[in-house]
Amino acid sequence: MASVYHINKGVGKPIMFKGLKAQYIAYLAVGMVVLLVAFAVLYIAGVSLLLVLPIIFGSGAGLFVLVGRLSARFGEHGLMKFFARRNYPAYIQFQSRQLFLSLKNKPIDHGQGK
Question: Where do transmembrane segments lie in this chain (predicted)?
Answer without folding.
Answer: 24-45, 51-72
